[in-house]
Amino acid sequence: MKLQMGAGRTYGKPLTGVILAGGENKRMGGRLKALLEWGGRTFLELQLEQMNQICEETFIVTNRPELLTKYRSDKVRFTADVQPGLGPLAGMQAALRQIGDGAAVWLVGCDMPFVSAGAAAVMAALYEEYGVDAVIPCIDGRLQPLHAIYGRQCLAAVERHLEDGERRMMKLLDSIRWIAADEASFKKSGISLDFVQNVNTTQQYKLLTGGPAETRFQRETIKVEEAQRRIFQHLRLQPPERVPLEMSFGRRLAKPVAAAQPVPHFRRSGVDGYALAAADTADTSSGQPAALDIVESILCGDVPALRLKPGQAARIMTGAMVPEGADAVVMLEMTDKMNGGGPGERVCVKKRMTPGENVTPIGHEAARGEPVLERGRLIRAGEMAVLAAFGHAEAEVYKPPRVAIFATGSELLDLNVPLAPGKIRNSNSYMLAALVCEAGGDPIVMPVLPDDAAEVGRSIEAAALRSDMIITTGGVSVGDKDVLTEYFADRPGALLFNKVAMRPGSPTTAGIVSGKLLFALSGNPGACYVGFQLFVKPFMRGMLGAANVNHPECEGLLEGPYAKGSAYPRYVRGMMEMQGERLIVKPAGLDKSSSMMSIKDADCLIFIPAGGSGAAAGQKVRVIRLDSPSG
Ligand SMILES: Nc1nc2c(c(=O)[nH]1)N[C@H]1C(S)=C(S)[C@@H](COP(=O)(O)OP(=O)(O)OC[C@H]3O[C@@H](n4cnc5c(N)ncnc54)[C@H](O)[C@@H]3O)O[C@H]1N2
Ligand code: MOO
Ligand SMILES: [Mg+2]
Question: What residue ranges are annotated as transmembrane (predicted)?
Fold first, then answer.
């Protein structure tokens, strides 16, 4: 069976990774292919980095585990061919025997340095959607069974083939139900097709490593929405924690909250007055008051002792429980006993009452069990009141992501150092720290990194182990000391994107470092700010469970012309002002990528579509609001 299908949903179950690292490597002069290097790292390292992104566990199938011990970890295990020397099918047999019924593997050959977690995720989604035994990529008209998804149910066929002496992977496809994932299904998800590239011969290896290509200039420009989609593929929710309610302001709920009791949970008086039966006032007017016997006085917090009989009333305070037999409360001002009338006395009521008047019925605001706060909701004043009303002394909220912030650049001075020619002070780190706080994270401002790619690499990799996310600024363009560009040039598999169709911030870069998202924002302060708002902020909202990760948007009218055209859409730091019914927007100040002063005045980003002439005065524009109470 063979279908050409597009990508569907993402795979709901964890995959097991399998790297076939056996084989004799005759054509590589006996070198272990898994240990060949690309960009300073072994193929195995590059592969495990991808596998760790989507696999709970990865098996390396090898008969020489002693050569690979340094790759062993709690997520990486070894297994050996049952019968060595029978090729990939035997390796597959060994791996499938390790996993449980219903599970599936992402199986790759060890000679593919660019295996892709993104491609595997696309295939895993198809695997689940179509309920097949396997999903095989078909690239350039060739099936690639050694970068494919296989279900455990393939084991029987694999074993039958091996018993019959059949070692060809392609032959296996005759006995299982599979579909092909075509080029379009990967392209649609922005996945480069080089994941199937493999190295069989010394010649091919030389070609692969022969001279560093000038990748810094060869960038794939993607749309803002596509960049957001790529980073969101790596979204993981923060773990929950419990905090005292009074400490929960600004946090996001990790659990929905339902009404523990109806609100109100007893019939409540809305005024200070007398509870009575409306029927007793049927003929009443100011000239003809009704005289009722006062039987008790009910204060807030009291439970009425008596059920009112016809002709009776009870003095009652705002918020107190309305007694049985009463269906209305008349305000003190409508009676002759404004200054007190207690049991044994009579009250004259001067108003004709209607049933229900000034009585709040049970459940008027919320019924018992009614959902009142959704998961991911930002806790502010109203939410605090609700949580308190339902007896939540503690709130279950998501832990704030720890965000390591690195400024890069040898021109950057510490804040307490005198300014020197050519040098500047590092303002981005502090701006980012504030933005991270605003987004509900814990910023960790790290020491400024010099323009040294190796040192930058070491620092961000170490930080990735101790934080939930990393932000760097600077060094993402094409300059000689653009260190983040250098870092990713050596690790193409770790890169999510490095060019976005937007101004400012077109070289905004993102990638995965030790399993954590790295946002490499531009060093230009304006671009750094916009990059944060468009990518980091929504991602952080997602980590904290927010239902809506995007900034709220509205339409506004440009106050004056915006004369600067651009090949890319422009996100102008702007200010909003209501003039009558109309929302008028204008740039907050100098809007260059390198300008910093206008950031403090911006409460929105004005979207100017790409085009030669910018936008005209009075033109209707998209306004991305940054002033939202939901952070
Ligand atoms: N030949 C080209 N040059 C540039 C291009 C290009 O395509 N071709 N792109 C431009 C664009 S667009 C941008 S945006 C910037 C991106 O620059 P980088 O991210 O590489 O940043 P740096 O080169 O490190 O610094 C740029 C600028 O920002 C100042 N800076 C850096 N860090 C900080 C900080 N922490 N606080 C305050 N200011 C900072 C730095 O001193 C520079 O002035 O590249 C264009 N060039
Ligand atoms: O994309 Mo850059 O931030 O415009 O100058
Ligand atoms: Mg630069």
Answer: none
